[in-house]
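sorry to bug you again but im stuck and you know this stuff better than me. below you get a single protein, a line of residues and a line of whole numbers that encode the local backbone shape. mainly i need to know what kind of three dimensional shape the backbone takes. anything you notice is useful, everything is just below:

***
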Amino acid sequence: MNNRLNAEMILGARAWLVKIGDTITGAGGESNTVSDTLIPEPPTSYADPGDWLPWGKVRTAKPQTDYKTADVEGVDDTGTYKVTELKLATKRKLLFTTNDIAPEAFQMTFGLAAPIVDGEEQPAFASGSDSLEVWMCFEFTDAYRAETGLARIFVRGKLSLQNPLEAKSDPAEAAYELNIQANALTTFRSEGLVG
């Protein structure tokens, strides 16, 4: 448990993904399709992800917000004009990296329109969009104390690579960008932040 007097931590993140259009199994055994209004039950661990795909060991993860500013001008209580700067969030993203390379990273790198199937060919660089429509679940952990469950967030977005995969004499790294889309099912739940 986090508390204000002992709050230093190494913040870690775990990630799972499910694609829009994937077929999942409901609680009663029925088949459903992942959509903007339907996501699977939350994953419990990498070993037991349910309908979610574990997205590998997350190396770094951080939210990013793009802003625009506008000046608001008006007379205040003193009777003089004042200008206040208004800061408006325009885009929100989650940026994360991993050394665990998923097949989807190759799909986005080589512009493939369909998921990869071993032994089957498809046109390279033929996709109109090198992104995937997904739901992602991130669980933030206190990796310093080896405790899980500080907070969990479910996010709807478009997943893409920040840069294509690179072949070099170092461990491969995939750097992802999740452009967040507004959705009523996007939620943040604290599990151990307040203490």
